[in-house]
Amino acid sequence: MQFTPAAPSDLDPAVTCLAAAFSEDPITGFLLQGGPHYQHHVTQFFSLLMRARIALGMPVLVARDGARLQGAAMGYTTARPVWPAAITEDWNRFENANPGLADRMARYDEIAEKYKPPAPHYYLGVIGMDPTLRGLGLGTRLLDLFCELSARDPVSSGVYLETANPSNVRFYERAGFEETGRGSLGGATLRCMYLPHRPRHDA
Questions:
Q1: Extents of the domains making up the chain
Q2: Buried (b) or exposed (e) across 154-181, using 16+ Cβ within 10 A?
Q3: Which residues, at least 6 apart from 41, have a Cβ–Cβ distance to it below 8 Å?
Q4: Mean pLDDT, residues 115-132
Q5: 4-25 pLDDT per residue, tens
Q6: Are the beta carbons of 62 and 3 closer than 8 angstroms?
Q7: β-strands 68-76, 188-196: how paired?
Q8: CATH classification (class only), 2-196
Q9: What gap in Å lies between CA 44 and CA 124, rounded to an integer?
Q10: CB-based contacts of 111: which residues, under 8 Å, 6+ apart?
Q11: Three-state secondary structure call for residue 8
């Protein structure tokens, strides 16, 4: 198994993997609201997120076994630059095709902003793997690698994330994350979690 930064050629297989992993996720369900075109919208959603992050040079990690891509994780460093104009335009079209998405995103962001740490930190937006491969440690390795990127950045105080899947809470707690707060997303509860890095000591 290889764990590497994503290349542009990884976009389609990584998005396919994430769309399958998050098809029944409470956050995705809240934002995109089901419907006959739900899975197509989930795929578009993750494609836009990954395209933006690859274009900006943000952390995007993939797990592959030979030619088969089996998992991915992505987020932001302490600097969150503005999306490229072309991707922003595509996002605006995506919002317009999903009535109420802008308001639901605003609700999501309201909770996330309220409970994020004030110090500069890395943000883990998405981590997922092929649903048929759960329990093999791929998610743990991707999480560890993302946290290692943050720990090597002298500006970063830790890693922040949100989840609305109760089964994921224990996964993150085992890695050292602690809940910083929570809020309601429709019928789901969004839990905000943070892993502070240990203080660095100069030699």
A1: 2-196
A2: eebbbbbbbbbeeebbeebeeeebeeee
A3: 32, 35, 94, 97, 98
A4: 93
A5: 999 999 999 999 999 999 989 9
A6: yes
A7: unpaired
A8: alpha beta
A9: 19
A10: 162, 181, 182, 183, 185, 190, 192
A11: helix
